[in-house]
Amino acid sequence: MQKKLHIKKGDTVIVLSGDDKGQKGRVLEIIRKTDRAIVEGVNMMKKHTKPNAANPQGGIIERESSVHISNLMLIDPKTGPTRVGRRLNEKGKLIRFSKKSGEEIK
Fold first, then answer.
1. Which CATH number fits domain 12-76: 1.10.472.10, 2.10.10.70, 2.30.30.30, 3.30.470.20?
2. SS3 string of the chain?
3. What is the pLDDT of residues 53-103, one digit of tens each?
């Protein structure tokens, strides 16, 4: 069974520690196996590529590298950075909610 994470693909997050501390971005991908996430515009790295169909010239491409999930905090649109809790709603489904405002996170 997969463990539940406090962030999902598409969430807006802020980086809590590391070289990119304070940067905000949207989560592009979650890597559950290693508890890491790829965040748009954060932890950029240079990748050397050979010429191929997509990039006939080849060369150096800059792209995002993964960040550990413990270094990310969800940003609630109304209250800003917040911790995330889980609770059952009226229908018995587990939902995420903002610890700051108590409202459900969509």
1. 2.30.30.30
2. CCCCCCCCCCCEEEECCCCCCCCEEEEEEEEHHHCEEEECCCCEEEEEECCCCCCCCCEEEEEECEEEHHHEEEEECCCEECCEEEEECCCCCEEEEECCCCCECC
3. 988 999 999 999 999 999 999 999 888 999 999 999 899 999 999 999 888
